[in-house]
Specification:
Chain A contains 1 helix and 8 strands. With about 120 residues, chain A is mainly beta. With about 400 residues, chain B is of the alpha/beta class. Classes of the chains: A mainly beta (about 120), B alpha/beta (about 400). The complex binds zinc ion.
């Protein structure tokens, strides 16, 4: 159920589960559509771009090996209404991140899992 | 005792209302050596004494979240421990995680007495997080073998602290509504000022705005002073049936309305926290209005949550809580809406929800000592939670 989301990065694809009957997107993945209760759900490739809904710059070292500061953000995905991903904004200074910025997915591989992180488009 | 009906409140005179009668609290501290069960019994004793009840008159027990073996510091004592230790003959009990946050345990007890399942119910919340952290041999730190549930969507991005989750909502308030750090800081500053006047509070030191603004950042815009700290303590509230309040010697406080709700647990899929629908629901269930409220005790495990509660409960519009608390005079002890008069969790310690109900009763009974608000308060609102789960109680001294 979650595999498509975490492994799509191998093909550079961001995949989100979608109801094949009523077209509503489902995230986090569930075996049933929250809108029409259909079990006919399947992963689809989405654009991989979006907008920063909100964010925070984390300064606390929750673990000794954690490098701070870093940006945690909620990204609203283009073409995927109702789905927001918690992720990290990478590739720029934490000071340069703001609400409303346009971002694009970039994958970070950890063994067979590809984390969808985001970087600024502009 | 049925004259405890209020003029503009419930029209129910059948005695099926629920009341908070005895309240009790243990010592509040960090790294206490007294065991969590004995802290709980200290609070029970305190509550029984106040109510003039004997343990034999207790026939129900309710707690949140119940004994949690994987995180003993978070919840070291369950219903079964208390029932066994005190020989309580319970005709009803509950200890559940999956309810609408900490004060959901009081909601459950109120429903039980109204349904006639019990007459006097001990509701308790015991925390031992500071002691447990200091004594890992006795209280092992939980190991996450694997990430599952909603945390699998957060952990890979190092967003595992509730401070990170709350911070993102707070950041949106700063960007969308212009919430300033000074406005946010007022919650901690007010709490700490009130804690100085509370002999039982954990942090009895005033906090200045300069100190707040220069505190170490945790997760923007939340700094260290916006986060409560691990505490060891137990708080007890006895919930009594309407037809049993003539057995108690203290002034009963009526639970005039209750509300609770749950949002999607993943946090990030929710537009607003669960406090917002909870606040709307509370006022649907009573003839009281926000204008009738004499004091509010609002969950501030993170300062920003108290701001969301002010908006959710209709004391101001969405996005206006920052302006509402700015400068602090409106929410001070002598202000129009005194807030967290015992210090809140930021001042009194992380009592985890129950402290807000306890303090509401203290104020309505006029027992606040140096922190007692002026006049004769009759109506209070207390809340717990925020984020995906929330509870609000309207309490009235009729
Ligand atoms: Zn559907």
């Amino acid at each position: 159920m979650n595999r498509d989301f975490w492994t799509g990065g191998a093909e550079n694809e961001l995949r989100i589960l979608r109801c094949q009957d009523c077209a509503v997107f489902i995230h986090p993945p569930r075996p049933v559509c929250r809108n029409c209760l259909s079990e006919n759900v399947a992963a689809e490739v989405v654009a991989g771009t979006g907008t920063i809904d909100t964010y925070t710059v984390n300064y606390q070292k929750w673990r000794p090996d954690l490098e701070v500061p870093f940006v945690i953000a909620r990204v609203a995905l283009d073409g995927v209404p109702g789905v927001i991903l918690t992720t990290n904004i990478v590739g720029c200074s934490a000071d340069d991140v703001d609400v409303g910025q346009r971002v694009r997915v970039t994958f970070e591989q950890h063994d067979d899992v590809y984390l969808p992180l985001f970087e600024r488009l502009d | 005792m049925f004259i405890y009906r209020c003029l503009n409140g419930s029209t129910d005179m059948s005695g099926s209302d629920a009341y908070i009668t005895g309240i009790g609290q243990s010592e509040i501290g960090q790294k206490l050596s007294r065991s969590p069960l004995l802290l709980t019994i200290d609070a029970v004793r305190d509550a029984l004494d106040e109510a003039g009840l004997a343990i034999g008159q207790i026939d129900g027990v309710s707690t949140y979240p119940g004994r949690t073996p994987a995180m003993l510091g978070f919840s070291p004592v369950g219903v079964e421990d208390l029932v066994d230790a005190l020989g309580i003959r319970a005709s009803w009990y509950a200890g559940a995680t999956e309810i609408s946050s900490q004060l959901g345990a009081v909601v459950e007890a109120a429903m039980a007495v109204r349904a006639g399942l019990a007459r006097h119910i001990i509701c308790f919340r015991t925390v031992y997080e500071a002691a447990a952290l200091a004594r890992p041999d006795e209280y092992p730190i939980p190991r996450r073998e694997r990430v599952d549930g909603y945390s699998q969507w957060l952990a890979p991005f190092h967003a595992m602290s509730a401070s990170n989750w709350v911070a993102q909502y707070a950041m949106r308030h700063t960007k969308q509504y212009g919430l300033t750090r000074e406005q946010l800081g007022q919650i901690a500053i007010t709490g700490r000022a009130n804690a100085v006047r509370n002999p039982n509070a954990l942090v009895r030191e005033a906090l200045s705005m300069d100190e707040y603004l220069s505190a170490r950042m945790i997760s923007t815009p939340l700094c260290l002073c916006d986060c409560d700290r691990y505490t060891d303590a137990s708080t007890v509230l006895i919930v009594s049936a309407g037809d049993a309040v003539d057995e108690v010697s203290c002034t009963p406080v009526r639970i005039a309305a209750m509300a609770g709700s749950v949002e999607r647990y993943s946090w990030d899929q929710a537009e607003l926290m669960a406090s917002y629908p909870t606040g709307v629901d509370l006022w649907k269930r009573t003839d009281y209005t926000p204008a009738d409220v004499d004091t509010v005790q609002l969950y501030d495990g993170f300062s920003f949550l108290a701001l969301t509660w002010l908006e959710a409960l209709g004391f101001c519009e969405l996005g206006e809580a920052g302006q509402f608390v700015e400068g602090g005079s409106r929410i001070a002890l002598d202000g129009e809406l005194p807030l967290n008069t015992f210090g809140g969790q930021l001042g009194a310690g992380r009592l985890h929800g129950f402290g807000f109900a306890h303090e509401s009763v203290v104020q309505l009974r006029g027992r606040g000592g140096d922190r007692q608000i002026p006049g004769e308060p009759r109506v209070a609102v207390c809340t717990s939670g925020g984020g995906p789960l929330a509870t609000a109680l309207l309490l009235a001294k009729d």
